[in-house]
Amino acid sequence: MKRQNNGVDREHHLHLAESPLNEPMTPLSRVTVTGGCLSGTWTVRDGQGREYIRQKGKTPFRFTVGGALGRHEVRLLDEAQCELAALSFQVDCRTELKESDGIYQQLFADALWTMLCWSEPHYLRLGNRFYNFFSFCLRDHIHVMKGLKYFCPELKPGLDLFGDTQHTNGMLADTVKPLERVASYWDIVFLPTGFRWQDPARDVCMQRTPVENDLEYIYVEGLYYIWKATGDEAWMRGRLDQAIRALNFSRQSPCYWSRKFKLLKRGYTIDTWDFQTEEDLAISGHNMLIDPEKTRFGIMHGDNTGYAAGCRYLAEMLEHAGRNAEARQWRRTGDAIRQRLDRVAWNGRFYRHHVPEDPRVKRDLGVDESKQISLSNTYALNRGIPHAQCVEILRTYQHLRRDLPKGSPGEWYLIYPPFERGFKHANDKWEYMNGGVSTITAGELAHGAFEHGFENYGADILRRVGGLCDKFADWLPRAPNGGSAVTEWSRQRILPCVLRGAESTPPRRTFHTLDLTTAANVDFCGKGAKNVPGWTGEGRNDLAEMLVGRQRYEDIPFVLIDPRQNQRRACIGLAPKAPYLPEIKLPVNRVAQSLYLLHTYSSAAFPAGSITMQYADGSEHHVAVKDNMVRNWWTPPDFFHPHARVAWRGKNRVCPNIAVFTCGIYNPHPEKIIAGIRLATMPGAGEWFVLGLTLCDAPVYFQPNPISFGIPDHWGAAAVMYALLEGLAGVKDEGVAFDRLLLAPRWVAAGVKRAEVCVRYPASEGYASYRYRGNGRLLTLTFTSSAPTTRLEILLPEARRPRGLTLDGRQVDFEYRQVERSGYASVNVNGVGVHTLRIRA
């Protein structure tokens, strides 16, 4: 019997009614085979040739797609088991999440979009080998892979890059970049220390931030993730010795291993971050440098829980490679690290942030360090520490939630309470690592909550994270280049990684507005007047609709001149060409702590000009007007800086988008009388317009952006994504490429009644797909996957035990398991294909 290449039988003309164009089918889709009037035994085999359906029937024959991805074969057999007809079709899928409430579905889309936007492909060439990766930083690359491994097919080259540039001593680089032709700042700082090394033959330079002590275990974690996602055991085996050298380096280097505690050590940083205190900076000469003899080291718990987890990952990979003796040794090493860490840093409720090697070392940081809980406690929840310790950490965060500072977006602090002083590079209190609130913490906390019997709390965390895009829609998200400029996608629901940790209280302050009436020389209107230029001289393209009189912008008062009452002179216009002024001096004769400008600019070239404070004692202070203080007045994008904002936005008869800006300038000598202020243009600059100038007796203050800074957004989005997929949706790979599957959907905790989930490794064909229905006391789960064995752990409604459980219509035995107050029905399922579990609770 002959069959066409497209799978349609020539004689009997079998075809799939749902796929007229031979498009791939998806798992759990319903299929109808039609064509002629045929009957017999129907069989269906999956992409690995495994039979998952055998039943008698006639056309039309209907079934549900299941089993491994790839080409499925449908055969019709007669009584002698001879083939009467056959066809084949392709099965494929991608990671998706849909649910009836829409809250978590939207969060899934927002987290995915954030990961993709920030993880634009990066490429590097070493000799004739080309590498692509998510981030130039190994740390960022691996952390974002936690979520992107479910969406991206190409995972190995990024880790290969860092493995192929490993130092001969086992040390790994944080960044690998093309070799610069001239000496850079980092050459000066790091080359003499050995933490920056070069390979001129391959035209690359490697660098490691000396104070950090996490790269080696992060490399092993990445190797483990990729092996699980790809199923490429040969590739994994080829990287094992590099992983061993890396972990050995951590325990052999005098910069990273504490002989006293037999634990990993580091300089005093905020959790896993890369800058030390100002006191320690004075010792090393740079906030990122360490000196094995002089640095005042201590134990940071996250380095050690991460290293212990890395040892377990390495042991599992060694076992698969047949290196069992080494695997046992690395398991013992990881267990010993964790046990020693508990003796040193566990306080009964969480891990203490930093334990000094020398107890005599005291730092004046304005906080009780023994009460600080930091980011890595949430990482520890997912690094294999005992359940009892996880429970205490989770309860600590729940307690924190009940007593949050005013204006806090959540309990997901990078460190809490924040430092009052001592971290120049942490910037302000409640920002970034010093008291910022992060989706990294939220994602790790939620994931741990789902694993340890706090499912309602985990669902609540994700629900609140899902509201962040709406809550802060009016504030600018940070752009992927690390700046504050708006990108084309910046309004498209980017999930911010760091939020300000508390509401800001404006200082008490008194303002004094300067009178610019006699200094003004330019009209707002494009017509102008005799000896008065009309704005930029472009006719109706002007600022004629600008408000005048006493106005407040960003809570700062300015007095704007009405040109009708001042001979058409409305503001100061400075430029290196007539009819504008090259400079002007304004009398002041008073003290002030800060100065605010209301101004705008007509060019993209900077500096726009300069501001000079001339003191009564004859001294001066100069400030260049840069692009973080003002922008072009014509069609400007949203502009946000800690010390500058869009003050007024309007339109004219030519353009629908024009604006003026306000910025604040610190006076470094508030005790001195400011005799005057000189405003001057710069060679090659455009027109700089000053509309108002106000002095203040307090430091510069603008309402802070509730979206903080310092960490790429895709890092936090990846943590949220893996909490969604592995925690709430409950799809976990217990083998390699989903050859052993755990399904533990926890939609009951979220109050979700219907969900459809598919989780796929695009780097292989491993996947799992299910449909969940929760109707009162009846829970139904229809599922399939590439795995031949599946372990089901079904979260039950609160305080209920199963009264009946059927699998594919037959009663089966199950195990009831309790985690804290949560009850689970546990069932093992063997065999590929589609299965349906029903539980009556």
Compact description:
This protein is an alpha+beta fold and about 850 residues long.
Description:
The protein has 841 residues and is α+β, with helices and mostly antiparallel strands. It has 16 helices and 45 strands. A seven-stranded antiparallel β-sheet has the order 8-37-38-39-45-41-42, with helices on one face. Strands 22, 25, 27, 30, 31, 32 and 34 form a seven-stranded antiparallel β-sheet that branches. A five-stranded mixed β-sheet has the order 35-36-40-44-43. A hairpin with a 6-residue loop joins strand 35 and strand 36 (740-743). Helix 1 (103-118) packs across helix 13, helix 2 runs parallel beside helix 15 and helix 3 runs antiparallel to helix 5 (215-230). The chain is globular and about 105 Å long. It starts with 14 loop residues before the first strand and ends with a strand. The model is unreliable at 1-11 and 477-490 (pLDDT under 50).
